[in-house]
Amino acid sequence: MEAPRAPRRPGRVGRRGQGAALAIGLGLLGGALPARAEDLFGPPDPRVVEALRKNGITGTEDLLWSLPLTPQVFPVRDSPDWIVLPGFSISLERAGEELFGGPLAPHRLRAILAMTGFLGVEIANYWIGRDLNAPDWELSWTWPSWEKKVVSGEGLSLDTNRFETNTVMHPFAGTVYYLAARGNDLGLAESFALSLLASTAWEYVAEFREKVSINDLIMTPAAGLAVGEPLDRLSRFFSAGSGVIPEMLGVLTSPFRALSDVVTERTAERAERLDELGLPTDTWHHFDLFVGAAAIPKNGELRSPETQIGVSFDLYDVPEFERPIAVERPVWPGDATRLSLQASLEQGDLARFDFHAQTSLGGYLWQDLEAGQDGLSGYNFSVGAATGFGYSMHDWDGWVDKLGAANLLGVTADLGLYESGLRLRVGASAFADFSAVSSAAIAQYIRERGSQGIRSILADRQYYFALGGTFGPGASLGYRGVELGADVQAQVFESIEGLDRYQSQVTREVDLHDYRLAHRAWLAYTLPGNRLKVTWLTLEQRHRSGSVDTVRSARSETRLLGGLSLLF
Q: What 8-state DSSP symbol labels residue 337?
């Protein structure tokens, strides 16, 4: 082991520290101020020191303070001195999972460089396709343009881009921003803040010749958090496992985290307990790989069967959950995540596609479970806040219904009762949404009344931006391997008016509403060993309706589904 260096005099920083401060300050933050942490903040909190000691870390030179909306304090390796940089932070970085639940030493500079590099690629692609973007160029790098964007608000609007640009490409960019920060050990809140900052920089600076897209400012960082956090948690989960497949999955779910490990020569810590597949068992998880077929009755006959494939990942990073123990404890932001994807193929064509991600923003768990001869007995109950993002498409015999929804903020609750082999789970959720949604009635409205004077996005794309909500109760009852369940999902959308990209040309400001209702019931059996589940029967019904002014349209569909699930 290398011998420790002699301490330098107070108030001085070594050349390495000065160089780092100068480079970061001039390149990113406009200056750096060397100082000692104790001089600025006093001695560290004894609780923090104790948490660090439990994790094998001693000496304040290894600490990292990151206080809300104050200068950030970075350690200088092998030195008792510190570099203080002007900047921002959302929350105190937690040193030790039991006290702070986050990384000890985030690599902010590396995260910002990664995000800047991705922004550079996007900007290059934007200017390569300048002919496609030029029709939206009506502003410039002048004060009148900036006054519209910053002061009066005239330079802000809901854009008229392609549906997938707004609901796939921008959420993808937000996910990359978020993973670049999270993969370099920044906390959840700070990663979201940086993705929001990157999105804002794109809208105001990279696209300075265009109006600022309100929908992109919302969708990009919201989807980044909702999708990026489950991917990062999955990366950490797989990296804690053993074997080629878990390691590959750890890299695929968050390449930035894998790259950070290579750069820092850090080896992921293995979980103490692994299953026969090399996956950690100390983190509650439920992974489902599904293959099946669906039959759709129509006019007394069955349409050609659909082939359905899907995968879902549920992680609940609370060690006590569903273990024989009594506990009352907080659930930290990001500790509960879900990621699911389903696709249906009809005669080789994509008939349906559903993607959804959800991330907890904090909550609380009450649990009192005991181990008995027939299994667990007792209860657990959790409640908390959450956010999510979803994209879906559904081909209704020629009309393609699309939805991109940011579940901005919601409440979830889940109750589990266990007794003598019986398992009853009841859950519910409610979210406030910002969405891009296909209008179910706009085609009929245009046929009847024409498109002159309506919003450009309706006339050209037949979708609109909406505020609304998603509501979803569900329940399941299981005994040994048998499970019976049902759930419902209802979604409502109401159009946002007065913010069209070409609002000055709108002479007919029509009011739009859309509704989605899906409910299903299923019966399933899991074979001994808990690896293969047979879904005997799933009955699913979907109802879709909408209105434009007084014009209304509605559709319904029933599906019978059966298949096999591999459980991990």
A: E
Task: Identify the CA nearest to 15 among candidates 60, 77, 73, 63.
Answer: 77
Q: Is 447 exposed, middle or buried (0-12, 13-18, 19+ CB in 10 A)?
A: exposed
- Overall size of the chain counted in residues: 568
225, 259 contact by CB (below 8 A) = no
User: Would you list the DSSP string of 454-499?
Assistant: S-HHHHHHSEEEEEEEEE--EEEEEETTEEEEEEEEEEEEEE--S-
- Is 194's pLDDT higher than 80? yes
Contact 47, 63 (CB under 8 A): no
Taken in order of first residue, the domains within the chain and their CATH numbers are 1-105 (no CATH), 108-263 (no CATH), 285-567 (2.40.160.40)
Mean pLDDT of 367-389: 93
Strands (E) located in 199-278: 212-213
pLDDT at 188 over 70: yes
Nearest alpha carbon to residue 386 among 357, 418, 421, 362: 362
Distance CA 78, CA 2 (A): 11
Nearest by Cα to 158 from 511, 549, 434: 434
Here the tokens at position 228 are 């990026």
Q: Return the sign of the alpha-carbon dihedral for residues 345, 349, 351, 353.
A: positive
Which residues have C-beta within 8 Å of that of residue 104, sequence separation ≥ 6? 52, 55, 57, 62, 64, 93, 95, 96, 185
User: pTM for the complete prediction?
Assistant: 0.80
The mean of the pLDDT values for the chain is 81
As beta bridge partners, residue 435 has 405, 466
Q: Would you give the DSSP letter of residue 323?
A: S
DSSP line for 124-165: HHHHHTHHHHGGG----SSHHHHHIIIIISTTEEB----HHI
Residue 566 pairs with which residues in a beta bridge?
A: 289, 532
- Cβ neighbours of residue 353 under 8 Å, at least 6 residues apart? 342, 343, 344, 391, 392, 393
String of DSSP letters for 34-71: EE-HHHHH-SPPHHHHHHHHHTT--SGGG---B-TTS-
